Amino acid sequence: MAKKSGGGGCLVVLLVLGLLGFGYYKWQHGSSSAPPDGADTGGGTGRYVALGDSYTSSPRTGRQAGTPAGCERSDDNYPHLVSAKLKPATFADVSCSGATTASLTAAQKTSNGTNPPQLDAVTTKTTLVTLGIGGNDVGFLQLASSCATTNSSGSPCKDRLTAGGRDQLAERIDAAAPKVGAILDRIHTKAPQAKVVVVGYPTVLPDGDGCWPSLPVGAGDVAYFREALGKLNKMLEDQADGHRAGYADTATPGKGHDVCSAAGTRWVEGVLPASPAAPLHPNARGEQGMADAVLALLKLP
User: Fold this and answer.
1) Are the beta carbons of 224 and 160 closer than 8 angstroms?
2) Using CA atoms, how far apart are residues 198 and 115, in angstroms rounded to an integer?
3) Of residues 54, 74, 83, 95, which has the active-site annotation?
4) What is the pTM of this model?
5) Would you call 281 a catalytic residue per the annotation?
6) Average pLDDT over residues 32-49
7) What would the mean pLDDT of 63-81 be, rounded to a whole number?
8) What residue spans define the domains of the chain?
9) How confident is the model over 228-255, as a mean pLDDT?
């Protein structure tokens, strides 16, 4: 992650880094759906495995958990909170910042160490799997690198990404769908008795024009990304429904807790975090909200 520096350039750098695609959000109302029945997890029984990217690993919100350090996995992320409530016999959080669907089946090199293929943690004894993935497959960093603007009503990214009648964000979301579905099928093969829950991304952008210049993105691009990221969450929900998994909607409860909301209520930090978190990523409050969505789906308090 970039170090702080003075001036407007800091906002641009942090925006770009924060958009590393580690996960994203749902802008349209969705709904959670329970996973099919499987083996019980909790009260000293079962094995819970958490898979995912940085919206799961939760960089900088707590103390480092596990290795490698480059995964920036915090001990207060939603998997740890869910595990603390469930109390399974065994728990493995192998989420990692920067992960794509490819990181589920192949080793992922980080800036500080290599994370083994995340699916290696899923065994026949696994009884619960949560999966938060997809944003990095879409590649939001590459697509959004020029979004920062001095024009509060501008849309430089939308103009570039929809030029020629194509919508590059929509195309990449469509391309990621079968990859997510294939991962869900692999999980079921490795852990036939497990309940599987796909965890959606919380609301990051507000309705309306945004909050320029705190978030230096023009109103046109705010609307464009809000819609595109809603499509990403809808894709995840559809893949869960089509591959015997539940879906935890975290965007609906996250409404009003976006980057433009007050510091004491937001779930997702802005480009200059007011609470410990990576830019444009969930803070500890957001991870608790995500954990609550998963626990409600599992019919636990």
Assistant:
1) no
2) 21
3) 54
4) 0.88
5) yes
6) 91
7) 98
8) 8-297
9) 97
